[in-house]
């Protein structure tokens, strides 16, 4: 399937990528969902209570999936599930089910991967290689017990593969009560991706004196996981395979993605 045939989010004024929109803007489900599901922290913005003029923003854990079709690929429409403590500001605001006239609590969600420092001949052309996504949607509380448990498992395994089944489960009644899951119906989204080497002005590229003293190129950038450090309360002699394999895999994938971004592939 070509990019033009891939399922996409609607292109609206609020999610249209303007600067470098044609080469960098993406609206297809797969690109956006992949960015969200491979980033460790989402930043969620929501209307502040008590008529505060400034929107609130908090970092959160989340994951995109479909409870009604749990085998749905990234190319299909997916919901975004957010995990938080029941008494947090966002969870309080989103704790009530919407009326017939409401769709839920409006949210803006941001996800970003940094893939490289792009160093040019002039400060004006310095940049980053990156993959970012912005999503807009309406959040409602997950009230179905089975869906809530499923979402908690997905989000936990989004932190580290197979972590859910390698912990004490199921959660206690108190843990379930104190945890709130919001389900976001995403109505529009866009991604912006920058890859490649720096783009310098022709005049600067013809300046041999400048080029002789100024290094240009890309410093590949990626999240690297270190050696696991045991808690003082740990009683397991060897770090489990599900942790060591995850660390190895993610470090390899992160470095590979950063190098691919340098070449603009």
Automatic annotation (TrEMBL):
Name of the protein: Related to flavin-nucleotide-binding protein
Protein's organism: Phialocephala subalpina
Superkingdom per UniProt: Eukaryota
Positions of the UniProt region annotated as Disordered: 1-23
A Pfam family this chain is assigned to: Pyridox_ox_2
Entries under SUPFAM superfamilies matching the protein: FMN-binding split barrel
């Amino acid at each position: 399937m070509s990019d033009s045939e891939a399922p996409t989010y609607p292109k609206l004024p609020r999610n249209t990528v303007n600067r470098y929109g044609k080469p960098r803007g993406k609206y297809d489900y797969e690109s956006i969902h992949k960015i969200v599901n491979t980033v460790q922290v989402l930043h969620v913005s929501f209307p502040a209570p008590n008529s505060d003029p400034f929107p609130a923003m908090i970092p959160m854990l989340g994951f995109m999936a479909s409870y009604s079709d749990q085998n749905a690929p990234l190319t299909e429409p997916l919901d975004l599930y957010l995990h938080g403590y029941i008494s947090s500001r966002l969870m309080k605001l989103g704790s009530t089910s919407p009326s017939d006239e409401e769709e839920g609590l409006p949210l803006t969600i941001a996800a970003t991967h940094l893939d490289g420092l792009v160093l040019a001949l002039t400060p004006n052309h310095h940049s980053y290689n990156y993959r970012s996504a912005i999503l807009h949607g309406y959040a409602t509380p997950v009230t179905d017990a089975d869906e809530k448990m499923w979402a908690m498992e997905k989000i936990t395994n989004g932190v580290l593969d197979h972590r859910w089944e390698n912990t004490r489960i199921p959660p206690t009644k108190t843990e379930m009560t104190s945890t709130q899951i919001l389900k976001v119906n995403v109505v529009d989204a866009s991604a912006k991706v920058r890859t490649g080497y720096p783009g310098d002005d022709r005049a600067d590229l013809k300046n041999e004196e400048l080029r002789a003293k100024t290094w240009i190129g890309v410093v590949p950038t990626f999240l690297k996981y270190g050696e696991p450090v045991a808690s003082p309360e740990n009683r397991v002699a060897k770090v489990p395979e599900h942790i060591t394999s995850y660390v190895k895999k993610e470090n390899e994938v992160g470095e590979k993605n950063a190098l691919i971004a340098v070449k603009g592939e």
